[in-house]
Design a protein that fits this description.
This protein is α/β, with parallel strands linked by helices. It has 24 helices and 20 strands. The structure holds alpha-D-glucopyranose (GLC).
C-alpha cells in the first residue's frame, strides 16, 4: 500500500495456455512471463487457466485445491473446481472440469466453442471464490473473448461485475472463434439481443473476438506495427472495419522475451555457454549443431536457420521459390518445425538435394531449437504477417542475426543494417517477394564472408538489444490505470536490488507513482537498438554495465502449501458435471 493508502491494482490474466504449464504457441510464452513482469512493476497479478490433463499430470502435486462450484451455461450446469499455485509472485488459478479439459490436447476438438465458453463463464462465476477481486481482467485471443461479454451481461444485475474493467489482447487475429449463429443461446447462454444488435455477429457468424473487441475497455495488439496493420484488410482477416471503429481504444504493446530463460550465458540446453564478450562457446555450439544435423563440419560457413511452424503465413513459399538460389550461396541451411504437409514434404525433399548442406527436422524439439538459436549465424523469418514474433528476439539474444520481412513485430524489433554508419541489427525486406528476400540473404551472407568485423559488430548489436518485458509491463500498467482511473503504484526504488532488499525485510515494497490521470495507452514500445559498439569503450565493460542493469536476483520461490491435494483426489466431487451435449461447433478456429 502507498502512503496515501492506495493499493496496487489487481489484474486477473485469463489465458488458454501459459509456460511452463502448457504450450502450443507464442501466447503461452507471453502468458508465462508477462504477468510476473507486471507484478514486478507493482500490480497484483493472478493468472487463470483451464486445468488441462497435462497440467494435472505434471503439476498435480503442487496444486492446492480451494473449492468447487457449479457454472450455469445455457441449459447446462457443470462442476468447476478451483485450484491454486503460486510462482514468482503470481497466483495461478486453474479451473477444473474433466469433461472439458481432461483431454490429450489443448485445442482441436469439435466442441472447442463449448469448452472455452465454459472457461470464460467459469472465470466470471468463480471470481468470488478466488479471494482476488480484480480491477481488470486481461483476456487473450478468442478462448477468453467471452469474458468481457459475460461481465457486461452480469453487470446489468450486479454492480460489482460492472466495476471490473477488461483488456482484450489480440495475439493473432486469424483466430476469431467463429460459430454458426444458432449456437448463441444453446452454447454460450447468451440472449439473442447480442446477435440482433450485431455485437457478436460478423458476416453471418457468431464471432467471439469481435464481441470482445467491442465490449472491452481497451484492446491491444502484440506490437505497434500490428496494431496499425489490423486496420487494413490484408492483415485483419475481415475485421478491419471493427478495428478502425475501435481505434480509439487500440494500442500496440510489443512483447518481450524471458531474458533469464533465454540467456546464452546460462542456458542449460545448449552445448556451450557464451557471452558477447567471449563468443568462443558459440563456435562450439555451431560445430555441435553441424554434428547434430549431419551438416559438414565447416566452422567458416554461415548457417542460415529457420525455426518455425511450417504454415503459409510464415512466408515459407518465398523460401521454396528461391531455394536453389539460396543454396548456390556459400551457406548451410537448417530447418526445424512442423505444420502443413506441403512444406514438410518440400523441406524433406530439399534435404535430399543438398546432403551435408541442408538439414531439416520435422517436429518441435525445444533442446534442438535452442541449439539452433545458439549455433546458427543467420535466422530467416520472411513472414507474410507476424503479430509480434518471439523467435527473432531469441535469435538476436543468442547473437544470430535475423533476416526478416518488415511486418508487425518483425518490423518493430529488427532494424535494417546500414553499412555506411555501421548501424542496425539485422536484414529486412519490405515487399512480400522472393527476389527481395534473396537480395537481403545475399547481402547478409556477403557481409559474413567479406566483412567479418562488420558482421561481428552486427552480431554484438543483436546481443545487446533490450527485449526484456520491463518496458512492456509498464505500458500495460498505464493501460490498466487509464481504464480503471487508479494510479499506478510502483515498487519502491527504481533499483531492483533495493526492491529485493525491502522484500527480504518483509516491508511492503510499493510507492505511489502519481495521482495524475493516466495517460492514454502508448503506441511506442519498439525495442531499443543498442548504440553501435563504440571503439573507445571496451565492449566487455559496456556489457557488464548493461547486464548489471538487467539482472534481477530471483526471490526464493514461494513454498507450495503443505496441504496440497492432487487434483485426482477430487474426482469424486465431479459427479455433478453436466452431461455434455455434442455440439457442431465445427467452425472453431483452433
Ligand atoms: C501469436 C503470434 C506471434 C506472437 C505470439 C505472442 O502466436 O502469431 O507473432 O509473437 O502470438 O503474442
Amino acid at each position: 500500500m502507498s502512503e496515501k493508502g492506495e493499493t496496487a491494482m489487481k489484474i486477473l490474466y485469463a489465458t488458454s495456455e501459459a509456460v511452463p504449464f502448457c504450450k502450443t504457441g507464442g501466447l503461452a510464452d507471453v502468458s508465462g512471463s508477462l504477468p510476473a513482469a507486471i507484478a514486478a512493476e507493482g500490480a497484483q497479478m493472478a493468472v487463470v487457466l483451464p486445468l488441462y490433463r497435462r497440467i494435472r499430470d505434471q503439476f498435480g502435486s503442487q496444486l492446492e485445491y480451494l473449492c468447487y462450484d457449479y457454472v450455469n451455461l445455457a441449459w447446462r450446469r457443470s462442476y468447476c473446481g478451483l485450484f491454486r499455485l503460486v510462482r514468482d509472485k503470481v497466483t495461478y488459478y486453474f479451473l477444473d472440469n474433466e469433461q472439458y479439459f481432461n483431454r490429450g490436447n489443448l485445442y482441436g476438438y469439435m466442441d472447442d466453442g463449448e469448452r472455452f465458453g465454459f472457461f470464460s463463464r467459469a472465470v466470471v462465476r468463480m471470481l468470488p471464490h478466488m479471494a482476488f477481486w480484480p480491477d481488470v481482467i486481461h483476456c487473450n485471443d478468442w478462448q477468453s473473448a467471452l469474458i468481457p461479454i459475460y461481465l457486461k451481461d452480469d453487470g446489468v444485475r450486479e454492480e460489482r461485475y460492472r466495476a471490473v474493467r477488461t483488456v482484450m489482447t489480440i495475439h493473432n487475429i486469424e483466430y476469431q472463434g467463429r460459430f454458426g449463429p444458432e449456437v448463441t443461446g444453446d452454447l454460450f447462454g447468451l440472449d439473442s439481443g447480442w446477435v440482433n444488435d450485431g455485437t457478436i455477429m460478423m458476416d453471418g457468424d457468431v464471432n467471439l473476438l469481435k464481441g470482445a473487441i467491442l465490449c472491452a475497455d481497451a484492446v491491444t495488439a502484440v506490437s505497434p506495427s500490428y496494431a496499425e496493420e489490423l486496420k487494413y484488410a490484408y492483415f485483419a482477416h475481415g475485421m478491419e472495419s471493427v478495428m478502425r471503429r475501435c481505434a480509439y481504444k487500440l494500442s500496440g504493446v510489443l512483447n518481450g522475451i524471458d531474458m533469464k530463460r533465454y540467456d546464452p550465458a546460462a542456458d542449460p540446453l545448449i552445448a556451450k555457454n557464451y557471452t558477447a564478450a567471449d563468443l568462443s562457446g558459440k563456435a562450439a555450439d555451431k560445430a555441435e549443431l553441424q554434428r547434430l544435423m549431419g551438416l559438414r563440419e565447416e566452422p567458416d560457413t554461415p548457417i542460415l536457420a529457420v525455426v518455425s511452424r511450417l504454415v503459409a503465413h510464415k512466408g515459407l513459399d518465398l523460401i521454396r521459390e528461391v531455394f536453389h538460389d539460396i543454396m548456390e550461396l556459400p551457406v548451410q541451411l537448417v530447418v526445424l518445425g512442423q505444420g502443413d504437409e506441403k512444406f514438410e514434404e518440400f523441406f524433406s525433399w530439399a534435404q535430399g538435394q543438398y546432403p551435408g548442406r541442408m538439414a531439416v527436422r520435422l517436429g518441435y524439439d525445444e533442446a534442438l531449437a535452442m541449439n539452433i538459436y545458439a549455433g546458427a549465424d543467420l535466422f530467416l523469418m520472411p513472414s507474410r504477417s507476424e503479430p509480434c514474433g518471439l523467435s527473432q528476439m531469441i535469435a538476436m539474444r543468442y547473437g544470430t542475426v535475423p533476416i526478416v520481412r518488415e511486418t508487425g513485430g518483425l518490423k518493430d524489433t529488427v532494424h535494417p543494417y546500414e553499412a555506411w554508419r555501421d548501424a542496425g541489427n539485422g536484414f529486412t525486406f519490405a515487399a512480400y517477394n522472393s527476389g527481395d528476400m534473396l537480395f537481403v540473404i545475399r547481402q547478409a551472407v556477403g557481409l559474413y564472408w567479406d566483412y567479418p568485423d562488420h558482421f561481428h559488430r552486427l552480431r554484438l548489436r543483436c546481443m545487446e538489444g533490450d527485449f526484456s518485458w520491463r518496458r512492456s509491463a509498464g505500458e500495460y500498467l498505464r493501460i490498466y490505470s487509464g481504464i480503471t482511473g487508479k494510479p499506478r503504484v510502483k515498487p519502491a526504488g527504481e533499483d531492483p536490488e533495493s526492491r529485493i532488499g525491502e522484500e527480504a525485510l518483509g516491508k511492503p515494497a510499493v510507492q505511489e507513482e502519481s495521482a495524475q490521470p493516466a495517460e492514454p495507452a502508448l503506441q511506442e514500445g519498439t525495442a531499443q537498438l543498442a548504440e553501435p559498439a563504440h571503439p573507445e569503450k571496451p565492449l566487455a565493460a559496456a556489457l557488464v554495465e548493461r547486464v548489471t542493469e538487467q539482472v534481477r536476483t530471483e526471490k526464493p520461490a514461494l513454498k507450495a502449501p503443505e496441504d496440497t491435494k492432487p487434483a485426482e483426489k477430487k474426482t469424486a466431487k465431479r459427479k455433478g458435471s453436466a452431461d455434455k451435449k455434442e455440439t457442431s461447433a465445427d467452425k472453431a478456429d483452433k
